[in-house]
Amino acid sequence: MMDEKPFVLPIKTPLGYYIYEVNRNEILSVNKDLYQYILMLCQENSEELEKVPDSARIQFNELREYGYLAPSRIKKIEHPLTNQLPILMDRAISKLALQVTQSCNLRCKYCIYSEYKNLNQRSHSTHMMNWETAKRALEFYRQHIIDTDEALIGFYGGEPLLAFPLIKKVVEYAEELFLGREITYFITTNATLLTDEIIDFLLKYNFRIAFSLDGPQKTHDRNRVFKNGQGSYKVVMDNIEKLYNADPDKLKNTAISMVIDSEQNYNGLMELFNVPILKNTSLTYAMVEENSVTKQPSSEYLEGYNYDYFLSLIECFRSENPQYKNKLLKHDMDLYMSRRNNIATKIITSIAAPSGTCVPGKLRLLVNCFGDF
Predict the structure, then answer these.
(1) What is the value of pTM for the model shown?
(2) What does DSSP say about strands 293-294 and 289-290: parallel, antiparallel, or unpaired?
(3) Chain mean position to CA 248
(4) What is the pLDDT of residues 104-141, one digit of tens each?
(5) Which among 237, 227, 172 is positioned nearest to 201, based on CA atoms?
(6) What is residue 305's three-state secondary structure?
(7) What is the number of alpha carbons within 13 Å of residue 279 lying toward its C-beta?
(8) Could you tell me if 195 and 164 are in contact, meaning their C-beta atoms sit under 8 angstroms apart?
(9) Inter-axis angle of helices 196-204 and 164-177, to 10 degrees?
(10) At a CB cut-off of 8 Å and minimum separation 6, what does 15 contact?
């Protein structure tokens, strides 16, 4: 019996044989025998199939077990949870994010609200969320987490610590409103406004904190500046050190949120984590964008990054507990291995959302300063 025709495009070049996986949007390098077998299947040439070695059929079946070479074609674009969305939004919202202010005390050069060329975006404003809006948001969230075990509440801006009095009031009310439920608080801050009072408060309620740091001082101060143009690195590091001195273990659950300007020197970027108090922090990052498109990396940056990425891949396959060169590569390798380990689950069905669409409002429902979702 002839195997089902796979939804692929066989490609032959002077350098080798390849298969374009339409459903998965991937290109596979294959040997000549497997290429010939797949080509015959695509052409539905049962006579020529008899001439292909059995090893090609074995390889074909092994790949199909891992979700490749499937015959299925998507007939309808639809997220699998579409029909459940009303229930999820009514009973299982995961996280409430409050934009407590649109104001910020920095003027980061890459920020879409600081750049005059992005005229379609709003500029920095002084709008602050009022207590009544915050209270209504908390009560709405409480009514829509019936099927969840914990409450997740995040504070964002602008710079959220400009609205610290409101944050205090929200937390105090949440402790009453969600009594009996575990509550986890999150905040993303530029760390320039941390005081002893704020640090004590964040520690008391065990906040998960993300600090904005773009690298060592020269790199950070290139873009993350105050309104007068002065770099913010020293203020940030002094404040993080105050938090460390108050509770050294706290930084183990703290993340550094980094925006990478790829014009900078890649090899010097991770020197930031040579600072002892930052060694146990995790890292998330994004690349600088221009007009909503990721900025093209410099050749110097790409050479350094690609070389280290290659070495990390080797380490990844050689060791059960790989030790990556820096936190940025650990982030990328963890993402790579997650996708690689889940490869068998990527089976295409007739109804699917190939882009991996999220569920709107389920993972995080943001309420802005004005009370809009």
Answers:
(1) 0.81
(2) antiparallel
(3) 26
(4) 999 998 887 775 555 566 677 889 999 999 999 999 99
(5) 172
(6) helix
(7) 5
(8) no
(9) 20
(10) none
